[in-house]
């Protein structure tokens, strides 16, 4: 807290105020790291403050002022994170945009937000913006971080990040009161200004601009930082998309209020390696990342020597039996403790070290359901992996699991200061300190989202279990009924299938139909490895996906899920009667997934209408021709004859036998 | 702090202006026994340009590159590089004069890492003796640090950070090509010879490679002579094109001129003999 001046003793209410505070209380502690030219570079809070101030005043020099919208596009790089704070210091509004968005998507967001200036990473993003700059009259300037390849561009509206900082430094040198005035303006804020526009990933239709206020964002961040005891001694690796609410919250918001040290990877491809070097204490990853890690570990263990394999599997069994109990501090026999200790030396320790998980105090996963086996695997290794349930509209946390109250199938209880209730039709509603003000320029959607009494509708169907923990079943609007009236929750079925390492993505159909059927996407890494091991040759993803052996493998998985479903009273009716393996991977570039890799059900339904029809008209194969978009935006097409397989469904085994989870 | 050595300054500037004559090939003829690979070819490469050499299979393109970098010795004709006339020279002389190249079939050290492979590109620029290098002592240490910095810049430039420590034998073809370009760049060349840099690549890899070639040319001002079969790539990238057929030069000029040259069209599309 500022010890002098008009704000003495007051708790900061904006992130720039936290910057000033951190620059004085933790002046010499490292704020940011970035690997550049193979060496970790670092900035202390003091240095970071100076960088941000120079850039911020530089922005002022080129005419940025209160209320201007500034787009931020790129991967996780210190300068882009600094831009957030530099922009907020001027009471302008940062609008982060997904770096991998194609030009059209980006143009929509920039236009919708009325962006005046864009701060981007490199030539690729500059090119993208220039390609549609005619359509965005409000956009005046573009600032770039990496100059490579941009030397010969027309620089009338193009500036280098460093040159803007130079402008700021010159302004400060010319006017000795300038720096003070800048700080005073920050201190004067009451936190009522807009802090950021976060565009949702657009699971349903166009993305919406979630408007968040500074004061409430700070409050939300403080609450959860306290909940997880984050301090200046923590460090994180920022590797998730910059434009995603989760990244903005976990790395920027929590980072500033707790003054932790954030590291930026060298490039998106080096994340795994950088993670190992940094060894973060706080880590977040969506379930699919943990899934990928487990798959990779298992694949690599397959190639290990017999002795190593034996040791690995022996101690994995020990960990599965005792690991979670030890992690949660429950009483465990001495022999088991000894065995686990040995396992830690021989297996868990080195494994965690390889994954970069040695120092983790708290790890979270969210966004999708996580398989119970997967969840237990990491917890058994001694990693405190927990689940949270969050929304961009809440500025992230709605619920989170408390240490010691961890269950694979729930997302925990409401975090401090959050109220939750379930509406009559099963939808989860909440009220939270960080909740958003409105969807930018979309009054109708805003109205739809708030209830009469000021709660926010999440659009997720959920229930409270006997422990009082929240359990999310599916998107509320996706839950439907089969023609015979039995409940159909597509995601529930999809998740059950996705827990198999060989299956990457699933789309289930059944609402208003006679039976449930699914599209499967194989996991190329896992199935490819299996094929190699079994001497099965294939030339392409498409060919691999269509192999009879692969179909047989998928049939076994679906059969397993059917048997599970038969054991659950509510779900027994929605066993899978027919399935097919898709000939191409679902991809965000084709609009089939959101940028956060969630299935866009409606879109897939339209795009693959002939295949869905084939699932229900009894045919055994179907020819399809699908348009695909390459990374550069060009289009091509792939065609295939997709086989469809019938499944046997089981009679409900009733509540006597619980699902084998 | 170590004393700063700028490895780039180790080679004296040749004083040739951008657009001035860097390489001049005069009436070169090369034959292997009775086979005439190249007959009486002349062309030039200006400083700072991208010069393409194209032609059907067996036209003598690679032979021409091999002549330029001293691997083959032409029976007739002269080559003037940076104002210096020469007739016979060894490849290592070419390398130390500032000519670097990549190969049609990748020629990397498969067991060595990307980093080490690119580091070998700086061999000709290293000055310390083998003993102090082995001891990694004094000047040798400083020198290596400076070279490493340059190599890291190249790694950053080519966006291959993630494979820095990976043995190149394990890399996919497209990446190996990129590493090879990195090694050639490490020699800090005045003239970069690329022998089919896009051969065997898919569309995306070709686009990446094209961008790197353009960036190298723009950023470092490196003069590039390249052989390529993909006409789209050649026409987009190069400033001037020379066309060979059966060891003879049949066209020379800007991509547009070459595209409309009747001899070139005949050579590529075939011509009816009646």
Strand neighbour order, sheet with most strands of chain B: 6-7-8-3-9-10
Number of helices of chain B: 10
Strand tally of chain A is: 28
Structural class of chain B: alpha/beta
Approximately how much helix is present in the residues of chain A?
A: 25-40%
- The stretches of 5 or more residues of chain A where confidence is low (pLDDT under 50) are 1-6, 655-661
Question: Would you count the extended β strands of chain B for me?
Answer: 10
Which range does the strand content of chain A fall in?
15-25%
Topology order of chain B in helix (H) and strand (E) letters: EEEHEEHEHHHHEHEHEEHH
Biggest sheet descriptor of chain B:
6 strands, mixed
How much of the polypeptide of chain B forms β-strand, as a percent range? Answer: 15-25%
Largest interface: A-B, 16 and 18 residues
Biggest sheet strand line-up of chain A = 4-3-5-6-7
- What's the quaternary structure here? heterodimer
Distance between the termini of chain A: 49 Å
Could you report the average pLDDT of chain B, rounded to the nearest whole number?
85
Instruction: Indicate the overall shape of chain B.
Output: globular
Folded structure, characterized:
- The complex is a heterodimer of chains A (661) and B (274).
- Chain A is of the alpha/beta class and 661 residues long.
- In chain A, strands 4-3-5-6-7 form a five-stranded parallel β-sheet, sandwiched between helices.
- In chain A, helix 1 (15-25) crosses helix 2.
- The longest helix of chain A is centred in the middle third of the chain and has 22 residues, at 306-327.
- Chain A is globular and about 80 Å long.
- Mean pLDDT of chain A is 89; it is low at 1-6 and 655-661.
- Residues 1-12 of chain B have low confidence and may be disordered.
- Chain B contains ten helices and ten strands.
- In chain B, helix 3 (114-120) runs parallel beside helix 6.
- In chain B, the strands form two sheets. A six-stranded mixed β-sheet of chain B has the order 6-7-8-3-9-10, with helices on both faces. Chain B has a four-stranded antiparallel β-sheet with strand order 2-1-4-5, covered by helices on one side.
- Chain B has helices spanning 61-68, 91-97, 114-120, 130-135, 139-157, 173-186, 203-219, 231-237, 255-259, 262-269; strands spanning 21-32, 35-46, 50-54, 76-81, 84-86, 99-102, 191-195, 223-227, 240-245, 248-253.
- By secondary structure, chain B is of the alpha/beta class.
- The interface between A and B is medium-sized, with 16 and 18 residues.
């Amino acid at each position: 807290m500022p010890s002098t001046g008009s704000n003495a003793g007051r708790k900061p209410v904006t992130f720039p105020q936290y910057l000033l505070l951190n620059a004085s209380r933790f002046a010499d502690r490292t704020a940011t790291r970035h690997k550049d030219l193979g060496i970790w570079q670092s900035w202390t809070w003091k240095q970071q403050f100076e960088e941000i101030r120079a850039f911020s005043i530089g922005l002022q020099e080129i005419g940025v002022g209160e209320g201007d919208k500034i787009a931020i596009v790129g991967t996780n790089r210190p300068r882009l994170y600094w831009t957030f704070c530099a922009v907020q210091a001027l009471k302008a509004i940062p609008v982060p945009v997904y770096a991998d968005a194609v030009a059209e998507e980006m143009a929509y967001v920039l236009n919708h937000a009325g962006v005046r200036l864009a701060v981007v990473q490199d030539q690729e993003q500059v090119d993208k913006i220039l390609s549609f700059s005619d359509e965005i009259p409000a956009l005046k300037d573009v600032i770039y971080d990496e100059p490579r390849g941009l030397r010969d561009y027309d620089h009338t509206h193009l500036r280098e990040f460093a040159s803007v900082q130079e402008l700021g430094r010159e302004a400060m040198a010319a006017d000795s009161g300038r720096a003070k005035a800048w700080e005073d303006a920050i201190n004067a804020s009451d936190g009522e200004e807009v802090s950021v526009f976060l565009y949702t990933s657009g699971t349903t239709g166009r993305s919406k601009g979630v408007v968040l206020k500074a004061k409430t964002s700070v409050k939300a961040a403080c609450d959860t930082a306290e909940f997880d005891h984050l301090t200046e001694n923590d460090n994180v690796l920022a590797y998730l998309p910059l434009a995603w609410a989760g990244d903005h919250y976990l790395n920027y918001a929590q980072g500033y209020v707790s003054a932790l040290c954030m590291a930026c990877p060298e490039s998106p491809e080096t994340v795994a390696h950088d993670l190992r070097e940094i060894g973060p204490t706080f880590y977040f990853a969506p379930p699919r990342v943990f899934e990928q890690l487990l798959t990779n570990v298992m694949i690599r263990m397959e190639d290990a020597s017999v002795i190593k394999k034996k040791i690995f599997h022996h101690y994995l069994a020990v960990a599965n039996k005792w690991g979670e109990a030890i992690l949660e501090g429950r009483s465990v026999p001495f022999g088991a403790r000894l065995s686990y200790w040995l396992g830690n030396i021989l297996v868990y320790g080195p494994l965690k070290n390889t994954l970069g998980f040695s120092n983790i105090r708290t790890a979270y996963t969210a966004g999708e359901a996580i398989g119970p086996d997967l969840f237990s695997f990491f917890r058994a290794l001694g990693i405190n992996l927990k689940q949270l349930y969050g929304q961009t509209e809440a500025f992230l946390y709605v619920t989170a699991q408390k240490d010691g109250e961890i269950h694979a199938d729930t997302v925990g209880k409401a975090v401090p200061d959050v109220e939750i209730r379930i509406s009559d039709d099963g939808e989860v509603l909440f009220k939270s300190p960080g909740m958003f003000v409105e969807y930018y320029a979309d009054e109708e959607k805003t109205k739809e989202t708030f209830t009469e009494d000021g709660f926010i509708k999440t659009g997720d169907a959920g229930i409270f279990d006997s422990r009082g923990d929240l359990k999310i079943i599916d998107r509320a609007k996706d839950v439907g009924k089969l023609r015979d009236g039995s409940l159909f929750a597509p995601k529930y079925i999809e998740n059950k299938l996705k827990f198999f390492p060989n299956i990457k993505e699933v789309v289930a159909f059944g609402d208003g139909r006679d039976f449930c059927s699914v599209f499967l996407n194989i996991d190329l890494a896992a199935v490819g490895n299996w094929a190699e091991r079994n001497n099965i040759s294939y030339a392409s993803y498409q060919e691999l996906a269509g192999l009879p052996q692969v179909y047989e493998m998928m049939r076994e998985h679906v059969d397993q899920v059917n048997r599970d479903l038969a054991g659950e009273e509510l779900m027994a009716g929605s066993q899978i009667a027919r399935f097919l393996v898709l000939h191409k991977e679902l991809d965000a570039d084709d609009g089939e997934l959101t940028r956060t890799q969630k299935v866009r059900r409606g879109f897939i339904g339209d795009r693959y209408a002939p295949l869905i029809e084939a699932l229900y008209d009894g045919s055994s194969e179907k020819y399809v021709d699908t348009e695909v978009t390459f990374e550069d935006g060009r289009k091509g097409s792939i065609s295939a004859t997709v086989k469809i397989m019938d499944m046997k469904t089981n009679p409900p085994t009733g509540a006597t036998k619980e699902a084998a989870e | 702090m170590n004393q700063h050595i700028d490895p780039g300054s180790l080679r004296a500037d040749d004083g040739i202006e951008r657009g001035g004559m860097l390489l001049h090939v005069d009436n070169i003829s090369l034959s292997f026994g009775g086979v005439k690979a190249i007959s009486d070819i002349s062309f030039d490469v200006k400083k700072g340009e991208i010069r393409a050499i194209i032609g059907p299979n067996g036209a003598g393109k690679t032979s021409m590159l091999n002549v330029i970098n001293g691997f083959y010795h032409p029976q007739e004709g002269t080559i003037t590089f940076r104002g210096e006339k020469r007739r016979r020279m060894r490849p290592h002389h070419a390398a130390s004069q500032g000519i670097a190249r990549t190969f049609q079939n990748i020629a990397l050290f498969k067991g060595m890492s990307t980093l080490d492979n690119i580091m070998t590109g700086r061999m000709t620029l290293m000055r310390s003796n083998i003993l102090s290098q082995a001891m990694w002592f004094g000047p040798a240490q400083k020198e290596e640090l400076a070279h490493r910095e340059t190599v890291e810049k190249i790694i950053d430039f080519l966006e291959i950070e993630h494979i820095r420590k990976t043995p190149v034998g394990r890399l996919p073809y497209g990446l190996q090509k990129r590493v090879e370009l990195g090694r050639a760049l490490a020699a800090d060349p005045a003239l970069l010879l690329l022998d089919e840099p896009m051969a065997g690549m898919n569309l995306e890899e070709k686009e990446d490679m094209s961008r790197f070639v353009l960036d190298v040319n723009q950023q470092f001002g490196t003069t590039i002579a390249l052989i390529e079969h993909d006409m789209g790539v050649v026409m987009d990238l190069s400033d001037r094109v020379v066309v060979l057929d059966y060891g003879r030069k049949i066209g020379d000029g800007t991509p547009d001129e070459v595209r409309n040259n009747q001899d070139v069209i005949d050579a590529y599309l075939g011509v009816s003999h009646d």
